[in-house]
Prior knowledge:
By secondary structure, the chain is α/β, with parallel strands linked by helices. It has eleven helices and eight strands. Strand 6, helix 9 (187-196) and strand 7 form a beta-alpha-beta unit.
Amino acid sequence: MSDKVTLNSLRAMKQAGEKIACLTAYDASFAAQLDKAGVDVLLVGDSLGMVLHGEDSTLTVSLSDMIYHSRHVRRGAKRSLVMADMPFMSYANTAQAMGNAARLLSEGGAQVVKMEGGAWLAETVRELVARGIPVCAHLGVLPQSIHKLGGYHVQGRNQRIAEEMKKDAVVLQEAGAAMLVLECVTRSVAKEITQRLEIPVIGIGAGSDCDGQVLVLYDVLGISGRQPKYSRNFLASHATVQAAIEDYVQSVKAGRFPALEHGFD
């Protein structure tokens, strides 16, 4: 557990069938606790707009917000890989994405940037990767497109959309994406995408067949004011935050989480 987590080690974990445990983090103190508990990837999520700022979506989060929080998370992380979300409209074209992603790495200390979107992002992904910026793709429910989607609806139940998602996943991998997050996707579609891709697939509400799991830290600790179907309050059965996080990591690694009730058909 002492070895530094890299994209190569995450890929090796997928090949070995070892589950990858991820959680969101927004500051150095929590980052240090998650790191100590064995969390493999710390996601500096634009979810901070909702859980820290009290907004009803992620759309108000700025690049400056992401750089600020990413910088502090990186200070608390010794072993874990640090990944940061590219916020809303910060990657509308390749040139814009290049400059903003570079700032997340150079100023924010992130090691990977995450972007929401399908095949239309392929060229941007290709250009960023060619210049040394690792990218994690994100399919399924796209919180930054919440107005277009009309709400947080499970993806993959519509056959046409399911097939499009599968194709997008392959296109993004071929463009150079190092990882893929699937959010609120039916178990069957998530399983097929995970098996089809060579890169690690991390699920949130996408069933137990993904290579790893990610949750919002504040949901895991029961302090977000909500309890999504795909999540679980791990602090409810523990006396300390550290014990709750360790339980989450061990549950993911052992395949106990997510259980059947945390996914979608």
